[in-house]
Amino acid sequence: MKEQVQKTFEALFALEDIREVLREALPTGLDPDEEQAVREGVARVRAILDDLEAGTGTPAVTKIAGTLDIRNREEAYINIQPIQAAGRLTLEARKALIAYGDGYSTCDACRKPFRLDKITKPSIAAFHEDLAKFVNMDVARVVPGARRGFQAVASTLVSKGDPVIVSALAHYTEFLAVEEAGGVVKEVPISKENLVTPDAVAEKIEEVIRETGKNPALAMFDHVDYQFGNLHDVAGIAKVVHQYDIPFLYNGAYTVGVMPVDGKAIGADFVVGSGHKSMASVAPSGVLATTDEWAPKVLRTTAMVGDVTNRKFGIKEVEMLGCTLMGGTLLSMMASFPAVKERVNHWDEEVKKSNYFIDALLAIEGSKVLSEYPRKHTLTKVDTTGSFDAVAATHKRRGFFLSDELSKRGIVGEFAGATRTWKLNTFGLSWKKIRYLAEAFQEIATKYNLNVKPRTGSA
After folding, report:
1. Is 223 labeled as ligand-binding?
2. Among 133, 254, 281, 409, which has the minimal tally of Cβ within 10 Å of its Cβ?
3. Count of CB atoms within 10 A of residue 120's CB?
4. Given pLDDT bands bounded at 50, 70 and 90, which one contains residue 314?
5. Domain interval for residue 26
6. Is residue 175 a contact partner of residue 183, using CB atoms and an 8 Å limit?
7. 275 is in an annotated binding site
């Protein structure tokens, strides 16, 4: 199969060579040299397609621009890398990237008032409205990753010295957003189950008020944390923070785009999502959505006037630095959106597949799951200290033996060399791949004389 993957890339590159001839030609048509170049290119494509069909031929192209390897991870392997699973591009997004990869391709038909969310061709304005509806908020903007959503909100609401409440499992970008704004992070401790509870949030707020004499300026909490993939009671947390009149930012980096998210039902003042992590989009991309109450603040427009030129910049939004996502980044997000809207309706099936694999892993004696179990999400932290790490202790390749064995079976994305605690994500894998994945881990365990309990039940 890898030969066919290689030839597919070569065919795509050969078509791009033809495309380059067309891009260099006059709009009136091809000259004789260009026509000859197209004929030669077509012949080369046909030859590559013959190899592709037959599964033959040697690699003719192994590098892009002489230095970049061809990335065939999604075509030749099953990828369980924890942060890549839900950012895998859809077919339509890959097509959009081909057509709209040029830097300012979104701006072909930009007209006054010269703002990204106002462009109607392509239908970027309507997409912004659809994004807001998707998470049940009033207004949405696309941003260069979830971190820029945190940044926009923090820089709006947080002043120097202001305390900001976050989880003890909060992502580092939440810390950086607060630090940049001059605020001070105050962490809510987690329970023995690695969860943040509303009661713990209330206790932390009271502690901060006693220490500082003022309410926190903002509360930011992950619905699903990146360390364990645990599902936290964000609705309960939002209710608590609102009792103290604290605005609530919902971090949906691992939820928006993979499972249903209703911002208003949760009680969020801000919803932040990650396009490249959970919305099948090119990086960096994300979404910031808010309510009509907060939109005038976080989406304020510029009031600055040049002291020499008297220039003004109309309705450019300060926290967005004008426009945000241009070119293939945004168009990939838009092209994937119909599939993303549909796939959140099948979240229960994704969780079922996650549990099927985790059950198979737990059947290997000595393996544990450190995340909530049964699983409520597809991102999971596991502990194989008592199983695969016991093999690594005497194997000449140490922990890398597991990576070697998985790679032989076409599986990548585990932390290379890690056989103690590590994370994986099964999101988007078909049942065929899930079963293959489960069988592969058990097959490796059996090979190294680890006890595997027989499976009960079916899926």
Report:
1. no
2. 133
3. 11
4. confident
5. 2-76
6. no
7. yes
